[in-house]
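> tool_call: predict_assembly(chains=two)
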Amino acid sequence: MSAITRDEVAHLARLSRLALTDDELDHYATQLDAIIESVAKVAEVAAEDVPPSSHALPLTNVFRADEVRQSLTPDQALAGAPAVEDDRFRVPRILGEEA
Amino acid sequence: MSLIRKTAAELGASIAAGEVSAVEVAQAHLDRMAEVEPKVKAFLHVDQETTLEQARAVDARLRAGERLGPLAGVPIAHKDIFATRDMPTTAASKILEGWRPPYDATVTARLREAGLVILGKTNLDEFAMGSSTENSAFHATHNPWDLTRIPGGSSGGSSAAVAAYEAPLSTGTDTGGSIRQPASVTGIVGMKPTYGGSSRYGLIAFASSLDTPGPFARNVLDAALLHEAFSGYDPMDSTSIDAPVPSVVEAARNPDVAGLRIGVVKEFAGDGYQPGVLARYHEAVQLLESLGAKVVEISCPSFTTALPAYYLIAPSECSSNLARFDAMRYGLRVGDDGTRSAEEVMALTRAAGFGPEVKRRIMLGTYALSSGYYDAYYGQAQKVRTVISREFEAAFQQVDVLVSPTTPTTAFPIGERADDPMAMYLADLCTIPSNLSGNAAMSVPCGLADEDGLPVGLQIMAPVLADDRCYRVGAAVEQALEARWGAGLLSKAPEL
C-alpha cells in the first residue's frame, strides 16, 4: 500500500501553488511515497509524555521598544519588483471577473 | 611561498605590517580563480572591479592608521545565500536570478567592518537544500580532489573555493550538515556554531529553527578568526543569543586535550559506513587518546531517528518560508499576460522558478503540516527533537565533547545520487543531531580513505555555547596529524 496517492500529490501541489505537469505529478508521487514511508520511523521513538520542541533555544517572545527607525525607502523596496506602478507593486488581478 | 598558499592569519599579519597590500593579495586570488574556475566552478558571481575596490578601500583605511581586525585585507568567498547590496543574491535559484538585495546580511556587514575582501558569491544547492551542490539551478561545482566528484553541499561552492586555493576563507550555512559535510569531503575545516551564535538576518531562510552561518578555512585557527569576526549578538535576529562569543581563537591557539573527556558515539559506525572512513576515524580517536584525552563510548540510541525527524521538520519550515516567493514583490514573475489571476501567476512562477528538490521539500512539508497528518508527522518529529536534545544533555554530563565521522562516505561521483533523494539524505546522517539540538559542531580533516584517496573528516560536537571545545580538539588533531604528515592534508591534493 502506498503512503500517498497521486491525487493527494496533486492536492499538495495546488496548496503549494506549484503548477505541475502530469509527468511531474507521476514522478513526485513515486518519490514522495518512498520518502514518507521512510520518515514515518519517527512514530517509533517518542512516547506520549515527551513534550515537542519547535526550537533549540529556550526562547519565548523577544520584544524591542516600539520606536520609529530608519528603514528602506520606497525606491529601495520597489527596486526588485517584477512590475511597479505609481510607487506601488503592480500585481495581477486578485479578484474574480464578477468583482 | 605564493600568496594563495598562505593562511588567512599570515595574510592578515603581512597586510597589517605593510609587507603586502590588500590589492596585491586580492589580485593573486583573482588570478588563481581565472586559472582554476573553468575546472572547479565554485562561484556564481565574480566581479573583479568590485573586489579590487574593496581591497583599495582596506588599504586606504590601514594607511590612514585605522585599527582593523586580524583579517583586514584577507579575501573571502561568500555563500550566495547571504544578502549583499553590491552583488546579486540568488540562493542558486532561478526564482531569484539577478536579484540585488537592498540591504546587507549581518554576516556580510560584519565581514566588511572587519575589512575582509569579498571575492564573489559561491554556488550552493538551491536554497541550501542538498548535499552535493548538484541542485544549483546554474551549474554543478567540482571537488578539487577529483573533478568528477561532488564538493559536498549545500555549501559546496564555498568548500571547493577554499580547497582549490581560490580563497583562504569562505562562509557557509549549516541546516543539516551543509558546512561540515562539504568541509569533510574537500579536506578542510568547517564549523557550525551554536544555533543563535551567528546571525540569520539577511540569510535567505530555509529552515529557520536550524539555519546557522559558520566559517570554512584550511586550518583551525583561520576558521576561529573568521568565526569571531562575524559571530555574536544581533538585535536584528530574534533568535540571536545575547552572550559573549565563546573564546574560539584562544582555544585554537591552545590545542591541549590532556584530561579532556571524549565520547565516541556508538551508533555512528558500522553498516553503511565506508571502511576507509571508519579506519581514519578510529585512528583519530586513538590519536586523541595518545594526546592524553580520556575516551569512552557513549550510546545515543535516538540519533538514528534524527534523519527522519529532520526530513519532516526542515521541509515543514521550508514550505512556510518559501511561501514568500509569490511573484509579487521581487524575483521572477511568469505568465502575467493580463488575463491570468495572481494565484495562477504565482503557481506558474513557482513551477518555473523552483528546481525539483525544492518542489519535493515544499510538498513534503505541506503534507507533514496538513490537518490529519500533523500529529503523526510534524508533531512526532518535534518530540524526537526533544529526545535527541535530552540524549545530548545526558552525554555531556559524562563527557566534554562527542566525536563521530562527519559523513559516512568520501565524496561520491557527480550524478550518482542525483535521482535518489533518500540516498542523498544519508550524507547528513551524523551531522543532523547537532542541528536539531542546536549545539556546536566542527569537521576537521583526519586523513585519506585507502580505497579512493579522498579526504575524511572527524566530527567534534560540543555543548551549546561551548564552541571553543570544538576548536581546542580540532586544533589538537590538526597539530598532531600535520606533525606526522609534515604538512596539512591539502598538500596531498593533486595539482589543478
